[in-house]
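Input for the complex:
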Amino acid sequence: MSRGSLSADLNELMQEVNRLNPGSSLKLNDSIVCTIYSRAEEITGGIVLRRGKPKFDWDKKLDDVITSRVFGFPSMLLLLAVIFWITVAGANIPSEMMATAFFWGQERLTALLHWLHAPAWVNGFFVEGIYRCLAWVVSVMLPPMAIFFPCFTLLEDMGYLPRIAFNLDNLFKKAGTHGKQSLTMSMGFGCNAAGVIACRIIESPRERLIAMLTNNFVPCNGRFPTLIALAGLLVMGMATSLSASFIVVGVVLTGIMTTLVVSWLLSKTLLKGVPSSFTLELPPYRKPQLGRIITRSIFDRTLFVLRRAVLVAAPAGAVIWLLANVHIGGVSILAHGANWLHPFGQLLGMDGYILMAFLLGLPANEIVIPILLMSYMATGTMIELDSLEALRQLFVAEHGWTWLTAVCMMLFSLLHYPCGTTLWTIFKESGSLKWTALAALIPLGIAVIVCFVLAQSARLLGWV
Amino acid sequence: MIALAGNPNTGKSTVFNALTGLNQHTGNWPGKTVLRAAGRFIHHGLTFKLIDLPGTYSLMANSVEEQLARDFLCFERPDATVVVLDATCMERNLNLALQVLETTPRVVLCVNLIDEAERKKIYIDYRALAVKLGVPVVPTSARNGTGLDRLVENISGVATGRIETKPYIIQYKEEIEEAVRRLEPKLKKLVGDAFNTRWLALRLLDKDQAVIAAVEQWLARQDDPAAGMAEVILA
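Predicted:
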C-alpha cells in the first residue's frame, strides 16, 4: 500500500487528536449521546401536544394476551390452526370446480385433435403430457395459495410476526442461539432464501451460521401448498378439513422443534459459544391495508409461486411424458429410475417416484407435487382423472399410498435439503462450500433418519 | 440520489413504495429491510434515485445496520436525505434526525403515521419543528397517500438547492467544541468539501476506527488513483 503525502497528513492529524483528547479523557461518546437525547427531549416538549390519553389501550391489552406466558403459545397455535382450516376448507370447492373445468377442456382438446386427424403422440405429448399436468398443478395448488397467502400477509401487516418472535425468543436463547433467529425463522415461512438473507441482521458469525443452516426447517411458500395438499389428501373421505389443518399445524410445530433441536446441537458441537442478547421492539398493531394485502399476496406470492411451478412443470411434463413413454427393454425410463430408487423409498415409507420427485424438485420445491402427479399419471392406467376423488384414487389404489406414505412425504418435504435457490443464497452469504454442503446434508440426514424410524416402527407395530 | 433513513418500523418501505411505485416487500416488523433497496421516481423532468436504508435508532454504528446507514450518508453523500419519523414517538425518532442533521444539511423530515398519531390524540406543531430544525417538515400518512405530493416537492427542492436549509446543529459541551474548532480547519485543508468536516472532526476525536479507515482509504485514492484502485480490488 502506498503511503502518499495526504495519508501522512492524516497521521499528523491523528496525533493532534491525541493531544486534544488525551486518553479519550473527553468521554466524547457519552457526552454526545447525552446531549443529543436531551436536545431531542427539549424539541419534542416544544412541539408535541398530547390531549388526554386514549380511552382504552388496545395494543397493550392485546399484547398482554398474545405474548403472555400462559396464553402466548396456545393463542399462536390456535391462530395457525384457524388459518390452515380456512385454507383447507375453503380450497376444496374451487379446486374441484377448476379440475372439472380443466378436464372438460381436455376432452374438447382431444376431440379437436381427433377431428384434425393428428397423430396419437401429439395428443399424448401435448394434452396428456403438458396440458393435463398444468391443469392439475393449477387446480391443486392455486386455491390453497390464494387463500393462505392473503391470511399470512394479513398477520404480517398487522404486526403479528414480531410477537411470534417474542414468544419464541426464550426458546432460542435456551438453544444457545440468537433471539433474532426467531425473526429470520419467521421470514423463512415466506421464503427460505429470503430467510437466509435476513440472517444478516444477526451480528455474531456463529449465531448467523446456525440461523442459516436451520432456516430450511420451516416450510416456505413453495412447500406449504405441498403440505396442505397432502394433508387434504390424507383426510379426504375420512375426516373433516379441521383435522387436516391440525395436521399442518403439527408439521409446522415439528419444523420449529427441529429448528430448535438442531440449533441446540450445533451450538453445543460445531458452533460452540454463548448467545448474545438483543432488544426487540414490539411495533404497534396497525390496521392492515386490505386492498394492498390482497393484491400483494396474489401477485407477489401466489402468482409468483404458481408461475415458477408452471414454468418448470410444463417442460417437465413434456420430459416426463417422454421418459414414461420411451421404453428400454420393455420398461420406460421413468420406471427404471423409480424402480432403482424404490427399495430406498420403501425404507423411508415412500416409494421410488416420490424420491425421484424430490430429486427432480431440487430447483424449486413447488414442483415436487407436479412431478409426482405427472409420473404417476404417465405410468398409471387410469384414464378418467377428472376429480379430486379420482386423484386420491390414483394415489391410494394405483400406487398403494397409506397414511404412512403421506405422513412420510410431508415430513420429508419439511426436513429435506433446501431448494437450489436457497442453497445458492447460503453459499453467497457464507462464502463457504463447506457450510453450504452442510446446509444440504444436515437436513437430508435428519429427513432420512426421521422417515426411516417412523416408517420402520409403524410397520413393526403393525399400524399400516 | 436521495437516501431514505429512519427508525425501524416507521414505514420507510411504505414511503419508498409510494414514491417509486415499486413493490418492495413491506411488513410490520423491525429489521425487515436488510438489503439496500433502490428505486427511481421522476419529478418535473428530473429523475431521482431513491435508496431505502435499513432502519436504525442512531448513527453510532453500534450494529451492522447502523454502520451501513451511516457509511452511506457520510461517504456516498446523497443529494438529499429523507428522515422518516414515527409521529407517535417523536422524541426517540428525533434522536436519529438530529444525528442525520449533523452529517448533512440537505434533509427533509417526513413525519409519517400521522393518522395513527391522531388516533392516539397526539398533535404536532410541524411549522415550529421546521423552524427549529431549519429543514422542511412534511406530515404524511404514506399508507393512505396523504402528503406525498408535498414530500416529493420538498425532496426535489432540497436536492436541487431550490429550498435552502439551515440545519439545527447541536452544540456540545465547551471542551468538545473547543477541540472541534482546533481540528476542523486542518481537516478542511486535508479533505476539502468531500466530507462534512464538523462531523468528521467529532468522529476523529472519538477515535472511530471505521471512520478513520474510510478516510485513510479515501486519501490513498486521492494520493494515487492507481494505488487506490488496487486497494479496492484487493478489498
